[in-house]
């Protein structure tokens, strides 16, 4: 974990205990577990970036967090990645998307995140969708739809609400089955462990 000038905690490198990575100069900062050797791949399809988000979600699951992972992409390069940190930070707002967005101004040098796409394994909630609108994210690509709380078009449409100063382009359901399977596996394990503790 590191402190920026504001005193806020921002996890840093993938090889540490941190959950957000960004080199600070806008460059791709290397692979994480299961990724390639760090070669820059600027012209890849959406599936490539969602697989990177799934690897982040697995990092969350391994840490006992709800398995949501996210990556930020600019000009075809992954410039930052994050996963849920609610339990680690004891902070209900420490969702993958929000932590990612908070790290990006340090990387791109502006709070306006024009031209940046976010790939996330689960549809953003109201808080995260609102942050995407306010920070002017270009596009959000999510995996698993959330019929109860999803705010990128499923339960509510904050990302495309008429009258907002900015609308976020949405691509829904990318690799949805893979994202859903990871989510369901995590909660099956949580329930099984809870039953064991009771018995």
Summarize the entry for a quick read:
This protein is of the alpha/beta class and 199 residues long. The chain has five helices and seven strands.
Using brief descriptors, characterize the structure shown.
199 residues; five-stranded mixed β-sheet
Structural description of this entry:
The chain is of the alpha/beta class and 199 residues long. The chain is built from five helices and seven strands; from the N terminus they run ββαββααβαββα. The protein has helices at residues 46-62, 86-89, 96-108, 126-134, 176-198, and strands spanning 2-3, 9-10, 69-74, 77-83, 116-122, 139-144, 169-171. Strands 4-3-5-6-7 form a five-stranded mixed beta sheet. Strands 1-2 form a two-stranded antiparallel ribbon. Strand 1 (2-3) and strand 2 form a beta hairpin. Helix 1 (46-62) runs parallel beside helix 5 (176-198).
Content of β-strand: 15-25%
User: Mean pLDDT score, rounded?
Assistant: 84
Helix content: 25-40%
Computed Rg: 16 Å
Which spans of ≥5 residues are poorly predicted at pLDDT below 50?
1-34
| First-residue to last-residue Cα separation | 38 Å
How many beta-strand runs? 7
Helix tally equals: 5
Q: What spatial form do the alpha-carbon principal axes imply?
A: globular
């Amino acid at each position: 974990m590191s402190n920026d000038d504001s005193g806020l905690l921002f996890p840093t490198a993938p090889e540490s205990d941190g959950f957000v990575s960004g080199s600070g100069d806008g460059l791709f900062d290397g692979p994480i577990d299961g990724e390639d050797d760090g070669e820059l791949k600027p012209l890849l399809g959406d599936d490539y970036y969602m697989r990177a988000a799934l690897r982040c979600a697995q990092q969350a699951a391994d840490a006992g967090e709800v398995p949501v992972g996210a990556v930020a992409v600019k000009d075809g390069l992954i410039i930052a990645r994050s996963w849920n940190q609610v339990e680690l930070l004891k902070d209900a707002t420490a969702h993958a998307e929000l932590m990612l967005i908070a790290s990006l101004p340090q990387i791109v040098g502006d709070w306006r995140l024009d031209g940046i796409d976010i790939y996330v394994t689960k549809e953003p909630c109201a808080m995260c969708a609102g942050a995407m609108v306010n920070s002017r994210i270009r596009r959000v690509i999510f995996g698993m739809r959330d019929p109860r709380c999803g705010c990128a078009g499923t339960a509510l449409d904050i990302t495309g609400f008429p009258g907002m100063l900015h609308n976020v382009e949405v691509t829904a359901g990318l690799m949805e089955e893979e994202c859903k399977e990871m989510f369901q596996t995590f909660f099956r394990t949580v329930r099984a462990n809870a039953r064991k503790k009771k018995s």
